[in-house]
Amino acid sequence: MNLVGALAAVAARGTGRGIRLFRGGAEAERLPFDELHLDAGRLACGLLERGVTAGERVAITLPTSTDFARAFFGVLAAGAVPVPLPAPQRFAPLDVYVRRTALALRQSRITRILADRALTGVLEPLLADAGGEFTVLDVACCSAASPVYTEAAGDDPALVQYTSGTGSDPRGVLLSHANLLANTAAIGKGLGVTDADVCCSWLPLFHDMGLIGTFLSAVFSGIDTILQPPEDFLRDPGRWLGIIAGQRVTITSAPNSGYLHALRRTPAERVRELDLSAWRLALNGAEAVDPGLLRRFSAHFAPAGFRPTAFLPVYGLAEGTLAVTFPPLDRPVRTVRVRRDLLGEGVVSLLDEAAAAEGAREVASVGFSVAGTEVRLVGADGPVPAERPALGEIQIRGDSVTAGYEHHEAATRAVVHEGGWVSTGDLGFRHDGELYIVGRTKEMVIVFGRNHYAGDIESIAAAVPEVAGGGVLAAAVPSPEGERLVLFVETAATAAEAREHLVGQVRQAVSGALGVTPHEVVLLRKGRLPRTSSGKLVRYGSEELHRQYGTPDPLTPPGAPGPPGAPGAATPG
């Protein structure tokens, strides 16, 4: 079985279900699964007529649309391999986009890019100096009259999924038809999907959680799949909630920041207008899960019928196709509290609730391995015994796990180990058999000989009022006196007094919780922090960020001279 065959089986049911695109809160496009299968075959024929060959990598640079679905399955039906890539983002730096896109194009040896009419005229000149020759095709003009479906085996390549690139340049995870079918089946089983379910997603389709966790999983389950452009959600998350209420949506997926955005932008009077009683699963993944946010969200939307048991903290990554662990359904989010100071040293010390007020970190369970996937923890002395709560790096293997990266043998050797185990770079521990994630191996900041998780520092600083949308990046920046802890903080505050107050609040919050004081707090305008195409913070390159924006001088008043483009920095204390 391959992906096109799986789509054909769904199309043959003739249910009338399919993909529905909403713009501005209203349905704008509809594509039933049987029409999608036919359109994919017609596009495949057109691509073959244009010289596309079996196994060729074809980039797809399309916005969220029914055309993306046609392009994805059309490339597969031609026997080629789709490589979803982001389109240029409005207001995002073009040089970063070109560099990252060119890297993917060269690494996957891509010569053809599928886009729409609007993007075709933009991409050709933009990528002209990227190295290599590229043909940008308007997907709407590539279809032929008759469908063609090229056969593919289960172990043939089916997708190159580029990682988000938070700690290094993005790498292309090579996934087979069998990998994708195994993982989407595990997702359907783990979520208990039935014909009565309706899925809704605003996540980008070039990102694994949007592409595999919602789009492909919903398609292969044969349920109605409602898509919303990410920019619609960011502009007004009330539209997303309105779709959930109006269409009786049962399943959604979003990162922690997405639920926070919806919470902040939905006043109580709007909540009372919604009916969220059909919403049975709200998956939370791709970012660190904040248990406090889940409680606040549940309380805020309770008048609309939202149930706390709907929240499902999940764990996954591109190297595992996507899903790795799910908690059991229909139960409250399970959390434990651990000593924050010892966690940085690799020690898991559980605290009871009465003793957990000071110096504790609350961590949410992400549950148990999904079907067909194994998880183990590996410490400095080898695999960590499953029966004790000890910190280790998470490694995975199974039917959904990649065999390596696209044309990158060194990176593959670094993560693929004997017996098929693959390193994830994530750190976690088990308690009562369930997995808890605490950070990443490359996100450790060492201050005065003590280890601190960058994400831990950032979550504390992000809770300070006037910090814009959780925009905090913690980094250890080299200096003649050794590494110094620097926090880059996004804020909308412009008055010098307000900015100085914010710096003090951030320093006090981090010092009070962790016993370490940031050497420098650099204030940035919202949007200045480098992020991946899926919105995650980019953790490498902090030295360059500090050279650009950091300053040892006192707080620069608005309008005063400073580094080019710098909005002002705080004084070290």
TrEMBL record:
PANTHER family associated with the record: DISCO-INTERACTING PROTEIN 2 (PTHR22754:SF32), DISCO-INTERACTING PROTEIN 2 DIP2 -RELATED (PTHR22754)
Pfam families according to UniProt = AMP-binding, AMP-binding_C
- According to the record, the residues making up region (Disordered) are 547-573
Q: Where is the AMP-binding enzyme C-terminal domain?
A: 457-536
Q: What is this protein called?
A: AMP-binding protein
Q: Residue limits of the AMP-dependent synthetase/ligase domain?
A: 26-405
| Gene Ontology cellular-component annotations | plasma membrane
At the top level, the lineage of the source is: Bacteria
- Organism name: Streptomyces sp. Y1
Q: Which InterPro entries match?
A: AMP-bd_C, AMP-bd_C_sf, AMP-dep_synth/lig_dom, ANL_N_sf
For molecular function, the Gene Ontology terms on record are:
adenylyltransferase activity
Biological process terms in GO annotation: fatty acid biosynthetic process
Q: Which family does it belong to?
A: Belongs to the ATP-dependent AMP-binding enzyme family.
Q: Where is the composition biased (Pro residues)?
A: 554-566
Q: Which Gene3D superfamilies match?
A: 3.30.300.30, N-terminal domain of ligase-like
